[in-house]
Amino acid sequence: DAGVIQSPRHEVTEMGQEVTLRCKPISGHNSLFWYRQTMMRGLELLIYFNNNVPIDDSGMPEDRFSAKMPNASFSTLKIQPSEPRDSAVYFCASASSGETQYFGPGTRLLVL
Amino acid sequence: AQSVSQHNHHVILSEAASLELGCNYSYGGTVNLFWYVQYPGQHLQLLLKYFSGDPLVKGIKGFEAEFIKSKFSFNLRKPSVQWSDTAEYFCAVNAGYNQGGKLIFGQGTELSVKP
Predict the structure, then answer these.
(1) Do the Cβ atoms of A98 and B99 come within 8 Å?
(2) Is residue B100 less than 8 Å (CB to CB) from chain A?
């Protein structure tokens, strides 16, 4: 299996632009998680889905952030408009029915 | 609310020294426990996990952890560290089936091993 796939791996954008991060979970996994990692705040859970349905989005920082999972093999995390404080590494992880989470390689986002 | 506390923010050891990283959690019910490792510039990888059974679990690369329910602890150990163990280590808890797989992570412990 290819593991969790994320794209892009690196993204540099200017403040105010829309950013879309993509994730393909491991085939057969029914849970998907979006995390953000920064030096200041560590690893934070933003949102997670079970069977394509958002279960807990309490970690989403504000309305500028949105996430979708239109099908079992694809999810997006969108930031619109982006701000410099959104600069971080964004990880996607997937799991099967509450079992071990497997992380993707992450997207390193820099907002100038 | 559930929480996970890792005792040390940064640990510095020489090669061949023994390692123990502390992890405590706050939840009184059934838990699944994990240790993840993040090598510099990489993503989190599973080191070991405890779901049930023998409270002493062995993971990859010579790591082990012991679940002590009475102490709400899941400390990570390795008898002899190597320079290649330099990384950040995260303890995590999946507390309760109603959480649907949500993990609560500790703040991480950065391990630096001097050659």
Answers:
(1) yes
(2) yes
Find chain A residues with C-beta within 8 A of B102's C-beta. 33, 45, 48, 55-56
% residues pLDDT > 70 (chain A): 98
**% pLDDT > 90, chain B:** 73
Q: How many CB atoms lie within 10 A of CB B8?
A: 13
Contact B110, B11 (CB under 8 A): yes
Residue B99 has a pLDDT of: 56
Q: Quick check: B105 and A105 CB within 8 A?
A: no
> In this structure, are strands B10-14 and B109-114 parallel, antiparallel, or unpaired?
parallel
**pLDDT tens digits, residue range A6-38?**
999 999 999 999 999 999 999 999 999 999 999
Query: Which residues in chain A touch residue B108, judged by CB atoms under 8 angstroms apart?
Result: 42-43
Q: What is the pLDDT of residue B97?
A: 54
Ramachandran angles phi, psi of B10, nearest 5°: -145, 130
Query: Is B96's Cβ below 8 Å from some Cβ in A?
Result: no
SS3 B104: strand
